[in-house]
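PROTEIN DATA CARD
Card holder: ABC transporter ATP-binding protein
Chain length: 541
Origin: Paenibacillus abyssi
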Amino acid sequence: MISTSGVTLRYGKRALFEDVNIKFTPGNCYGLIGANGAGKSTFLKILSGEVEQTNGEVHITPGERLAVLKQNHFEYDEHKVLDTVIMGYKQLYDVMKEKDALYAKADFTDEDGMRAGELEAEFAEMNGWEAESEAASMLNGLGIPTELHDKQMKELDGNQKVRVLLAQALFGNPQILLLDEPTNHLDLPSIEWLENFLAGYEGTVIVVSHDRHFLNTVCTHIADIDFGKIQLYVGNYDFWYESSQLALSLMRDQNKKKEDKIKELQAFIQRFSANKSKAKQATSRKKLLDKISLDDIRPSNRKYPFINFKPEREAGKQLLLTEGLTKTIDGVKLFDNLTLTVNKGDKIALVGPNSLPKTVLFQVLSGELEPDAGTYQWGVTTTQAYFPKDNSAYFDGVEMSLVDWLRQYSKDQDESFIRGFLGRMLFSGDEALKKASVLSGGEKVRCMLSKMMLSGANVLMLDEPTNHLDLESITALNNGLIDFDGTMLFTSHDHQFIQTIANRIVEITPNGVIDRIMSYDEYLESAEIKALRAKMYPEQD
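Structure generated from the sequence above:
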């Protein structure tokens, strides 16, 4: 168990945390959420001892081992991959090294023999004889093949290093796990492996993630950072979000019968408690929703941007036709003879392990690149808005204020209208006067989404729009695109985003296109699709 008593962290006059008292118990997985800058990663560092709090204490049950997902991808460059994983259990690794050093001595003494015997006993007690096979099994589960296990870490690419460091944190069954964005750079099979691992994990997990599907699958509790405090809720992210929004509605609605709102909230709690598939808590532990009382549900003070795409005109039936599109970049053929018909109302998720073909297809369809062969034709009734993965060209070196930046894309040039629009996208007051060149990644995304909303387009093309966004903005964008009654093509690594928006899945593979009208979960679970993908990706056999 890990807990805090009176933990406070101040930077000058600013208090990031104030008198935080919280307890994290074994058998539970806690999703630590909060707006950008709320201090999620910093709180994990306080728990691990990497950052020292101003006041208060962190308590860990004596004898329990805590493991942290490391963020320094270069720390182990001179070590072998397999050794790096075993280093996650420092006591075991130290015993291994001391034991090996003793046996390597040319002048092995009786005293060395006694010490070696002690080490062998410790080694066996820590299950050391299984260490290498367990580490190898973890690496394979996370997509690091056996042929890489004896290579040095510096020989791996960035994505592979992240997976090795995740295996390091999980190795040796520590009693407490602190995971900061563990699904970053993981493909779907690796994320599923991690979800299954955590489902059977008996210790305490505290995780920061922007992946709502992951939080919904693994979390038994949500720890919400707001105004320097941390409030604990039973349930997963969806339960926290929907219940907090209902509670907020109850709090704001002073003129209607409170009894009706209370009944609505109570019915919601009961429905979530009874319906395990709705609760989506894939872990079999601690199904406590049925014990929640109305007093346990509190409104959230979190702010959500207002994202609402309204087409100015309705599109006709045929929106886009591509015939034989082919494009090669740097000698690599990204798509070949791509023929695709996009119909009215399609919400197409472009999926697949390689992001470059999808990005280049968007660049071709938006007119940024010319295809090597083939044609594409937009319907005469269509208007398109494009969200590029790399938006730096819209902001780098641009010294105008956000008001002036957004005015470029607005038919209504009135400053009060522009400021009102920016306010709904969480740029209120002096925030609207910031220079476009100094925006954070998330702020740039909100500006690009504002530009798209003002266009009134009836076709949206979005290339990984959830990158850099916090959970609140992702949720708002997700809901806005669900409500959008136009047509869209989009890419995302966010499972829930794809599942809740897409009605058609298109995968561009090295050997053709897979195109199905179905949900994302149906696509992933389909035996026919799995067999087809095996043919399309022969190198995976």
